[in-house]
Design goal:
Number of strands: 8
Radius of gyration: 17 Å
Strand content: 15-25%
Strand order of the largest sheet: 1-2-4-3-5-6-7-8
Number of helices: 11
Order of helices and strands: HEEEHEHEHEHHHHEHEHH
Structural class: alpha/beta
Largest sheet: 8 strands, mixed
């Protein structure tokens, strides 16, 4: 089994762990086709989930059940990243293109008024979208957002660099173990993480921090949920800056979560916090 075939098989294995019935569709955009997994009541408020980089939409396996109880959930694979979205259209040069891609997704799926939730890199995309198209959103949830309110840790970037330059299953596992302090408990997720080393991706977009004045002007109701043990950045600094720059946002901490374990290994705490905010 070659690397890409192994990745696709691992992707399907994790997707089968979703505890809800899922419809998978390909949505056209100027940038290519976006794979979106859809679940939840058709009359529920739309909730769009953007994953962290290198994890794809299947990462929400531990969260989608409770979230889909009252919401129509849309979980896309990020354009330009690994997964089943196909970037064969316009180039991705930065935040403007990623927000234009999301605009096309909102148009095609008629998602005006949706809540938008993102983790890590997905949170950076979600925040930039809220700054550019606040009229389209009902709420914004940022899960341990990177390069939104403060820079990333040099130690984290240094640890990530060998994995990014010469990826392998062993390096992915070692990096995850260093950041979270343990090996993932779920064997399907553990195998999926290893398979991402050989998955195809088209574009890494530079993450430039939003301007402070734009953050202060953001009127979208927001939750900033931070991982207390995150090694991606200085959590206390991120919390302080989020409170200073977006005083209307709710800033909360999950003390036992790390950056990479937040969606998959803190499901009860994360799902409870998101459910309360979305309600």
């Amino acid at each position: 089994m070659d690397g890409e075939t192994g990745f696709q098989a691992a992707y399907d294995t994790v997707l089968r762990q979703w505890p809800v019935e899922v419809e998978s569709v390909d949505v056209p955009s100027p940038y290519g086709r976006t794979r979106v997994h859809i679940t939840g009541p058709k009359d529920g408020t739309p909730l769009v989930l953007l994953p962290g980089g290198g994890t794809t939409s299947v990462v929400w396996f531990a969260n989608v059940g409770p979230l889909a109880a009252a919401h129509r959930v849309y979980a896309p694979d990020l354009m330009g990243d690994i997964g089943r979205s196909v970037h064969d259209g316009a180039p991705l040069r930065g935040a403007d293109d990623l927000t234009a891609w999301l605009d096309a997704l909102f148009d095609e799926l008629r998602l005006d008024g949706a809540h938008l939730c993102g983790h890590s890199y997905g949170a950076w995309i979600a925040l930039n979208y809220a700054l550019r198209a606040p009229h389209r959103l009902g709420g914004l949830a940022l899960l341990d957002p990177t390069n939104c309110f403060a820079g990333m840790s040099f130690g984290y970037l240094g640890r990530a660099l060998p994995m990014l330059l010469k990826p392998s299953a062993e390096r992915v596992a070692a990096f995850h173990r260093w950041e979270t302090g343990r090996t993932p408990e779920n064997p399907a997720w553990r195998a999926f993480l290893g398979s991402t080393a050989t998955a195809r991706r088209s574009k890494v977009v530079a993450m430039r921090r939003p301007k402070p004045e734009d953050l202060t002007a953001c009127a979208v109701p927001a939750l900033v949920l931070l991982a207390g043990r995150s090694r991606a950045h200085n959590v206390r600094r991120v919390a302080a800056e989020a409170r200073r720059l977006m005083p209307g946002a709710t800033v909360a901490l999950l003390p036992n979560a790390s950056h990479h374990s937040l969606p998959t290994e803190q499901p009860v705490e994360l799902n409870d916090a998101l459910t309360r905010f979305l309600a």
